[in-house]
Amino acid sequence: VENIIRIGTAGALADELELMDLVLGMGACTDSNFMHQYGLDGSFAPIADWTLLRTAAELAAARGLPVRVGNLLSTDCFYTDGEHAPGAWKKMGVLAVEMEAAGLYATAARAGRRALCMCSVSDHFSRPQKLSPEQRQTGFANMMKLALETAVKMAAL
User: Fold this and answer.
1) Can you point out the beta strands (E) in the chain?
2) d(CA 44, CA 58)
3) Could you tell me the pTM of the whole model?
């Protein structure tokens, strides 16, 4: 495996995000202890591979897809009501919450591979909006097509 593209859903933190918008994770903040396994003296900042990210962003723009690029929050607890709930991450400019990007980016970095996380917004943390089960089953075609197009373009490089 040279290129890993994770597709999935995310809960929006950014007010400007709408349901079904695509978020490309340039970086992945985390509240997980996943990075501890690497024995680093400090904090590792998990980031996407630039070539994958740029390719996906260019393809999305060419197709006119609603896409944002920025930080994701990878958390072990997707929904929490603690005092450090997602609002604190929103203040730091984090766009959306999901569960895998930070671990994926760190694993890819350690293995010398490329990784990108792209998510479709399935719900919103600051508004009572969420996709129905039917919309979740049938509504992610744009994300899947973008991931496939990105993979095909990367294979040609």
Assistant:
1) 3-12, 22-30, 67-74, 96-98, 114-124
2) 27
3) 0.92
Helix 50-63 and helix 141-156: axis angle, to 10°?
A: 130
In the chain, what is the straight-line distance between the N-terminal and C-terminal CA atoms, in Å?
A: 15
Task: Give tens-digit pLDDT for 89-144.
Answer: 899 999 999 999 999 999 999 999 999 999 999 999 888 999 999 999 899 999 99
- Active site positions, annotated: 123
Q: Is 70 exposed, middle or buried (0-12, 13-18, 19+ CB in 10 A)?
A: middle
What burial letters (b/e) apply to 37-64, b meaning 16+ CB within 10 Å? eeeeeeebebbbbeebbebbbebbeeee
* Alpha carbons 129 and 121: distance in angstroms, whole number: 10
Closest CA to 103 of 54, 153, 38, 22: 38
Q: Are the beta carbons of 21 and 66 closer than 8 angstroms?
A: yes
